[in-house]
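[job 4471] stage=fold_predict status=RUNNING
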Amino acid sequence: MAAPTPFLVLCASVFGFYRVEAASDTVSSLDSSYCYGGLKVIYPELDIDKCLIIPKDMKLREKASTVWKAPQIYFPAADKKKMYVLVMIDPDAPSRTKPTSAHWRHWLVVDIQGNTLKKGHMEGTTLTDYHPPTPPQKSGFHRYQFMLFEQPPDTPVSLTKQEKSARGKWDLEAFVQRFALGVPVATLQFLTKNYKD
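[job 4471] inference complete, writing structure tokens
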């Protein structure tokens, strides 16, 4: 019995155009609930506007790890008069089952002008240069999380000397509290694993 056309259209819009590789490659409800606020992360061949797993097909995992530079960040709800802080971390370093180096800081940009976020051309001060997702082989899926915070007015945000010395084992909570950043206004994550796995 053939599926009705409206059902197929609904499935295509809900599940996207990437095929699901296997049951273990689907985003859990806990992981999908992480994303909110309308943040968009745009790589050359991959626009991310919801929690997802980067598909293995089209070599997207390999390109994310070895080819693509820092993505464009787009936040249509940004207030033009405010400044923001963008954080990208891997809470699963070196693996989700043993995250002994969490939170691994992949990118940190402060003093981001709201009007540039609205246009998708983020401008700010980079405190930690972008480092692409490079999960170790056989470490399973890693979550790469983007958090966008409003930066309080007249609050210079910086890293301590100790924080500058290493990306791993970063105390994100202490950083957020130190600058009274509060709860992120938007979050987004994707999952990927080593492209050779």
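[job 4471] summary: The beta strands are 40-43, 46-48, 52-53, 72-74, 83-90, 104-113, 125-128, 142-151, 186-192.
[job 4471] exit 0
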